[in-house]
């Protein structure tokens, strides 16, 4: 699958329509033979979640993450997050609109391996599985001065060679 698809940036199409467009694109390599960093796979995964649950991506995020963490109704993904425009085709990778305090609560949940004050919001089995456990050593993201980078949970974490990652 291509690492980027133009429809990801379109706020007037639905997530379902965008993923249908992605499905028509030619593969760039056989599955499992090549890694290209991009956002297309997360769009497809979000649509799969919509189909399985029967809910929109932002409703899934609100019900399974936002509400339990006590986050505002503005904690969601948008097509154009800087202007908070477009919720029918949310930019799943890079479209989160959150305050620093809201994002800190999400990071704390990941740090505590899914535990929310004694309640297991995310199963430890999931927290022990990729993408949380696995680290992919990649070329540094564009604009980074780091010589090496890893990605976990689709979040770039850059480091210099002297900075160990445990």
Q: Count the beta strands.
A: 7
Mind summarizing the main beta sheet?
Answer: 3 strands, antiparallel
Cα end-to-end separation: 31 Å
Indicate the proportion of strand residues: 5-15%
Mean pLDDT: 79
Poorly predicted tracts of residues: 134-141, 146-166
Globally, the shape reads globular
Number of helices: 5
**Order of strands across the biggest sheet?**
5-6-7
Helix content: 25-40%
Query: Could you say which structural class the secondary elements and strand pairing correspond to?
Result: alpha+beta
Task: Write structural notes for this entry.
The chain is of the alpha+beta class and 166 residues long. The protein has five helices and seven strands. The strands form three sheets. The protein has a three-stranded antiparallel beta sheet, with no helix packed on it. Strands 1-2 form a two-stranded antiparallel ribbon. Strands 3-4 form a two-stranded antiparallel ribbon. A hairpin with a 2-residue loop joins strand 6 (148-152) and strand 7 (155-159). Helix 1 crosses helix 2 (40-53). The chain is globular. The model is unreliable at 134-141 and 146-166 (pLDDT under 50).
Give a nutshell description of this structure.
With 166 residues, the protein is an alpha+beta fold.
């Amino acid at each position: 699958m291509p690492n980027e698809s133009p429809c990801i940036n379109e706020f007037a199409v639905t997530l379902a329509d965008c993923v249908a467009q992605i499905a028509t694109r030619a593969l760039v390599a056989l599955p499992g033979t090549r890694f290209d960093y991009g956002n297309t796979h997360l769009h497809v995964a979000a649509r799969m979640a919509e189909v399985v649950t029967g809910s929109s991506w932002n409703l899934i995020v609100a019900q399974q993450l936002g509400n339990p963490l006590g986050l505002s109704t503005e904690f969601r993904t948008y097509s154009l997050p800087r202007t908070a425009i477009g919720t029918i085709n949310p930019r799943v990778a890079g479209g989160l609109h959150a305050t620093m305090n809201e994002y800190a609560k999400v990071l704390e949940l990941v740090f505590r391996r899914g535990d929310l004050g004694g309640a297991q919001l995310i199963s430890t089995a999931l927290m022990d599985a990729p993408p949380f456990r696995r680290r992919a050593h990649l070329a540094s993201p564009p604009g980074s001065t780091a010589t090496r980078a890893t990605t976990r949970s689709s979040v770039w974490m850059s480091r210099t060679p002297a900075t160990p990652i445990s």
